[in-house]
Amino acid sequence: MSVRGPLAAERGGRLAKQGVAPGGGVQMRFLAIWIALAALLAVGAIIVPRSILPSTILAFIPLAAFLCITAMGEALVLMSRGIDLSIPSIIALSSTVLLGVSGGLDSALVIGIVAALAFATLVGVVNGALVAIGKLNALIVTLAIGAITQGATLWYRESLPQEARVPPLLADWGSSRVLGINVAVWLTAVLVIVLTVILRKTTYGRRFAAAGASPRAAWVAGINVRGYQIAAFAVAGFLYGIAGIVISAFIRNPTLSVGDPYLLAPIAAAVLGGTAITGGVGSMAAVAGAALFLTHLGQMLKMLGLSTAFQFIIYGIAIAIGMALAESRLGLVRRWRSR
Fold this sequence. Notes:
The protein is mainly α. Helices cover 74% and strands 1% of the residues. It has a single domain (30-333), classed as ABC transporter involved in vitamin B12 uptake, BtuC (Orthogonal Bundle), CATH 1.10.3470. The longest helix is centred in the C-terminal third of the chain and has 31 residues, at 308-338. 45% of the residues are buried.
């Protein structure tokens, strides 16, 4: 019997795990969200024409950028076979630390940003260590650490003035535009490119994907699976910290509820962007498309006069549909590999 058949099947299985079609093209899971976004824009043009006006798009696209940053962090955690529900708490923490350390002064802006990112990353490391080393359930861990973080943030926030504001220099940056587009969007684009290059073109990225796709096989191959899982939570925390800083710069006077919108939305964006809940597969570009899709959908619902409650319902449905599709795709891949 020729060995070409088994070798081809094995190669196809590896490519499927990496989110690539056997012929070398991008798997449909990453293209689907862009098709859905185009369809949503077409529907919006008919139902709510105002939703596709350039002024409307320029107004809501920074919100999509904030969601994209948090969703990329969630996607990294999902790729490592975890889940993170501490996002709102970490965003609030980084925002509050920025306010407290900087004191609203431009001279202390840099140290405020560094401190905010350091604390956010530290929370991510704690999450990752408890999950990877302690072998605890990621859902429970991130809920517990999120609650502890929220309590610590509340305690620290009580020592700050009620009207605490970000330094003027950061506030000016948050409202500035380049080529008519808010700087937060450009920053997000840079993050998408950097993470994509790291995941697709570097040894660390390929090992990270392998550790998420098949932890046991990766361990046998000498890959530090625990280290990569902790790194996933740490980088995610760092991204949440960036989101907290950028959002604070945008609204100038953030409160403790600054992270509240980012509990379900990042999970929905990550799953709709094709990130595999079984680990190892994800695309930051597709996650960005999902963030645009959900943000535009939310704006359409508002223009139609629907309440925020319906947005949470939509996010819940989106997560359920995304997970169902992920499971069905996984079943198809397994059957294809068995043949």
